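Sequence only, no structure available. Ideas?
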Amino acid sequence: MLLKDLQVVLQVAEFRSITAAAASLDMHTATASAAVKRVEASLGVELFTRTTRKLTLSQAGERYIPECQRALQTLDHAKHLISENSGAISGELRLAVSSDLGRNLAMYWLDNLASQHPELQIKLHLSDNNVDFYRDSVDVALRYGKPEDSNFYGFKICDVPRALCASPEYLTLHGHPNQPKELDQHNGLFYELSGVIHNNWVFTNNGEQSKVRMKGNRASNDGDVVRRWCIAGKGLATKSCLDIAQDLKLGKLVNVMPAYEPQATELWLICPSRQSIVPAIRLLRDSLRTETAKILASLPD
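Reply:
I predicted one. Tokens follow.
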């Protein structure tokens, strides 16, 4: 059984299609199909149930694929340990990042890493949905909020303040609210995750909390879309100060009601286990801490 064949099997399991898996691996469909057959022949079971319309995991496949994924991660970890001893950072780093942070900041940080370490290959997975490390084939995730799953291992990158923001044009047309009770006269722009619209906003002023259930006509499961709506003058939004740092500096967005602070959050680098932490991830962790500190330090109080 060849390692390359196992990698093909994992891709087929991810895409539920031999053709799509072959395309992602830049190989012929027949080559990918032959790899799957070799693995199945070696195991003596069929990993996939095939019909004319779709391909699904068999019962044996449901049990085998997660273990196969973990085994390949262990081998990859061993490879990275050798690289660590040689002082080189190499191999493939598959990183999942939320959409706004990924498009506007993380991709540039990763470009810097790649230029400094030519042997490092980066794959960026952009999504605001919670990552499934085995299903989505990623090594590490950069996410707002402390990991809730105790099986995961994470590095806290930084504390992240949030801000209520709007464009200057919106405030000119609709007025500038000074306290939470005035927000009922304004349009909210909402983030939606797993079908839940985050329209309950909490603000703190001198240790006292104010809760507001906002009304609004726009919601998206993509944080970058909410930011773009806000810049376009469609309403008010609560955003991470990392995500809108450049917009604040350029005057595209204004910090509204600065005396009332939305609930802060944390930025974490999350791994599926302690064993999955390789030199490239440690390098990424240190780089992220440096880059985020620069941005937060550059913002007005």
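The mean pLDDT is 88.
Hope that gets you unstuck.
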